[in-house]
Amino acid sequence: MNDIIEGLGRATAYGALGVVLLILGIFLIDLLTPGKLGRQIWEQRNRNAAVLLSSALLGIGGIVFTSIWTTYEDFGKGLLSTAVFGLLGLVMMAVAFLVVDLVTPGKLGATLVEPEPHPAVWVTASCNLAVSAIVSASIA
To answer: Can you tell me where the transmembrane regions are (predicted)?
Structure first.
């Protein structure tokens, strides 16, 4: 019974950390794009914004999953590792976004929240997932 209780405690801690990292991802995407992301998606039904945010959330989720899956035997060290790699993933996604913005015409953030579907959102979403895969691979 103690192992179940201990497992629930660990799952709660990792789950809470994962939720915090996802929330940071939402704030990051909101910071990189003009306007309010929540309004763009839920009120204006902006598909570009939804795809962009979804890719970031999936990417962070993948990093957190990999970090937990390969966690150290030491719970504290595993939790710290998950936080560090999750934050690294967020930073790397932001850097990749800024690099794509530099090498493409116009302002990427503004393009990605246009009401009409734009192919740039798929490039940026793929970049988020690629960064996530790279960070995840470095954990294992």
So the answer is: 12-29, 49-72, 79-100, 120-139
d(CA 100, CA 64): 24
d(CA 73, CA 3): 14
pLDDT one-digit tens code per residue, 8-48: 999 999 999 999 999 999 999 999 999 999 999 999 999 99
Quote the number of domains for the chain: 1
pTM for the whole structure? 0.92
DSSP 106: S
Q: How far is CA 56 from CA 72, 116, 129, in A?
A: 25, 20, 7
Tally of CB atoms within 10 A around 126: 11
Please state, in angstroms and rounded to a whole number, the distance separating the CA atoms of residues 107 and 69. Answer: 38
Distance CA 127, CA 36 (A): 22
